[in-house]
Amino acid sequence: MEWQVEFHDDFESEFDALPQEVKNELLATAQVIEMFGPQAKVLMLIRSKGRSTET
After folding, report:
1. Model-level pTM?
2. Do 2 and 35 contact (CB within 8 A), yes or no?
3. CB atoms < 10 A from the CB of 26, how many?
4. Measured at the alpha carbon of residue 21, what is the angle toward residues 5 and 40, in degrees to the nearest 5?
5. CB 8 within 8 A of CB 30
6. Which has the closest alpha carbon to 44: 20, 22, 36, 54?
């Protein structure tokens, strides 16, 4: 099952003001959620743990 992720219209101006790197991370996270639904939480935790060990 594929999930649909949408940002609320009220978030558009905030999103536009974010640095490009943050926008890219938000969009990448939305894509993971679309592909994996609730299981995305586990994937995101694994990803964030890997980042915390990077120098």
Report:
1. 0.69
2. yes
3. 15
4. 35
5. no
6. 36
How far apart are alpha carbons 53 and 24 in whole angstroms? 21
- Give the distance, in angstroms, between the CA of residue 17 and the centroid of all CA atoms in the same chain: 17
**Contact present, 5 and 34 (Cβ < 8 Å):** yes
Residue-wise pLDDT for 6-53, tens only, equals 999 999 999 999 999 999 999 988 998 898 887 787 766 666 666 655
Q: Which residues, 6+ apart, have CB-to-CB distance to 40 below 8 Å?
A: 29, 32, 33
Cα(41)–Cα(43) distance, integer angstroms: 5
Q: Can you tell me the distance from the alpha carbon of 14 to that of 10, in angstroms, rounded to the nearest whole number? A: 8
Instruction: State the residue for tokens 């935790």.
Output: 45
